[in-house]
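[Meeting: bench + compute handoff]

Bench side (C.D.) handed over the final construct sequence. Compute side (W.E.) agreed to return the predicted structure before the next meeting so the bench team could plan truncations. Sequence as handed over:
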Amino acid sequence: AKKQGFWDTAYTNLLRERLPSDLKNALIVNKKAWNNFQKFANSYRNMYIGWVKNAKTEKTRKKRISEVAKNSLENKKTGIE
């Protein structure tokens, strides 16, 4: 990790996960949800993105995307169970 340069950023929130296009599309439908999501700290954004990416089935992924969009609209930074 040190040789590859990951050591210094391993436990920081400086990096943002790449936003999957299906999640982005669900968020930009509602301007308020999109704006709220963009204002979340990297740690919250990354948590939501990782949660969506780790879905094992397409059905689960769609459900999670819907939940992230709903939580973003309500400006909820948590809610992942």
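W.E. noted at the follow-up: The first helix runs from residue 21 to 28. C.D. will use this when planning the next construct.
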